[in-house]
Design a protein that fits this description.
Protein name: SulP family inorganic anion transporter
Radius of gyration: 21 Å
Strand content: under 5%
Helix content: over 70%
Structural class: mainly alpha
InterPro entries: SLC26A/SulP_dom, SLC26A/SulP_fam
Largest sheet: 2 strands, antiparallel
Pfam family, one: Sulfate_transp
Number of strands: 2
Domain SLC26A/SulP transporter: 18-378
Distance between the termini: 46 Å
Subcellular location: Membrane
């Protein structure tokens, strides 16, 4: 079924439900705004692109999606892919690849491919998620320590020596702001898990930089003022040569968007005891990525952390996601200059925490107790993600994982078949 969930939930909608959705939407917006900025910066894009994606794609995912509580927008999982596409093809190449990925997802939704996620081995998903978390965390070392490293290579193996060579340029004040922000994020999450402590922590760290006049980079000092309006939508420039060149990137973006959105919807189902519509979710992801590209935004997908925040804050229907997008738009329209005060080390601390949560440390013990073949598959996928390429990691991981699954099935069949 590709019917949007909002059409089902709106039948019994009430003022009480709207109040719950309103408060949850505002809470999620406070979490999503700094995250969207930080993800865009880490991806090598303009920070404004993160806000545009959260607003446009976030609205479309809630409007057309198959989950009651899914929140969409730019996510950490895309940082590696987006950075690579921008480096190889420019930002206009990313926009076109995102546009193409949107149509791939629409086709996947039309042909009811949502159930195919069941064939992706869990060890592969866990492996590339941990690998992406490692890449995100290392990408924030420079801002976390306030290093003056010049141009840092994108390649993981080359990046670490470059950062080590710049160790003597570390800014202790920047490091202090990053550590304070990190401690506040952890502390506020434990003390008040239902409230947006994340924005409070980043705000306190950034306020300290402004009030104490510390020599620490801010959003404004590095990127200039954020726009206070959405750009006009326009079609990306399309040519046959460009289309062929960007097909691999578009497939990667579509695959990642589809997998992460469906995983996020499954997590949401467990939290609320619900049942999402996978094909509606893929269709929504397709429409959201097309819309985001038309406004010059980044690839988008369902965001597990923001979706969980929505559930904990009391979100009941897709209206909470619509509110979240509209609140970010309102902040962009009336308070864009304030975002310029956000300190880069505070945003780096936010992304380091995001990377830590992505790796799901509470599941490490479960991974260690898994079958040896599953452990090996997880490690292989993680290593390939970090050292080679996300596309290679997923391709190799899925191929080996399916082979292992078929091997186990044949073994079980042989064991169960009585000898004649």
């Amino acid at each position: 079924m590709r019917k949007p969930k909002i059409l089902t939930t709106i039948r019994d909608y009430s003022a009480r439900l709207f109040l719950s959705d309103l408060m949850a939407g505002i809470t999620v917006a406070m979490v999503a705004m700094p995250l969207s900025l930080a993800i865009a910066i880490a991806s090598g894009a303009d920070p404004a692109a993160g806000l545009v994606t959260a607003i446009v794609a976030g609205f479309m995912i809630s409007l057309l999606g198959g989950s009651r509580v899914q929140i969409g927008g730019p996510t950490g999982a895309f940082i590696v892919v987006v950075f690579g596409v921008i480096a190889d093809h420019g930002y206009d190449g990313l926009v076109l690849a995102t546009f193409m990925a949107g149509f791939i997802l629409l086709v996947a939704g039309y042909f009811r491919a949502g159930r195919l996620i069941a064939f992706i081995p869990e060890a592969v998903v866990n492996g590339f998620t941990i690998g992406i978390a490692i890449i995100i965390a290392t990408s924030q070392i420079s801002d976390f320590f306030g290093l003056t490293a010049g141009s840092v290579p994108a390649d993981f193996v080359e990046k670490l020596p470059a950062l080590w060579d710049a160790r003597e340029t570390a800014n202790l004040q920047a490091l202090a702001i990053a550590l304070v922000t990190l401690v506040l994020i952890i502390g506020l999450r434990k003390a008040a898990p239902k409230y947006p402590g994340l924005i409070v922590a980043v705000g306190i760290g950034s306020a300290a930089v402004a009030l104490l006049n510390l020599p620490v980079d801010t959003l404004y000092s590095r990127f200039g003022a954020l726009p206070n309006h959405l750009p006009m939508p326009h079609l990306p420039e399309i040519s046959w040569a460009r289309f062929v060149e960007l097909i691999p990137s578009a497939i990667t973006i579509a695959f990642l968007a589809g997998v992460e959105s469906l995983l996020s919807a499954m997590v949401a189902d467990r939290m609320i005891g619900g049942q999402h519509r996978p094909n509606a979710e893929l269709t929504a992801q397709g429409a959201a990525n097309i819309a985001s590209s038309l406004f010059g935004g980044l690839p988008a997908t369902g965001a597990i952390a923001r979706t969980a925040t929505n559930v904990r804050a009391g979100g009941k229907t897709p209206v909470a996601g619509l509110v979240h997008a509209l609140v970010i738009l309102l902040i962009m329209l009336v308070a864009a200059p304030l975002a310029g005060y956000l300190a880069m080390p505070a945003l780096a601390a936010l992304l380091v925490m995001t990377a830590w949560n992505m790796s799901e440390p509470h599941k490490w013990g479960e991974y260690a107790r898994a079958r040896p073949s599953d452990r090996a598959l997880l490690v292989l996928t993680m290593v390939l993600t970090v050292l080679v390429d996300l596309t290679v990691a997923i391709g190799v991981g899925v191929a080996i994982g399916l082979a292992l699954r078929l091997g186990r099935r044949d073994t079980e069949t042989d064991w169960k078949t009585p000898k004649r």
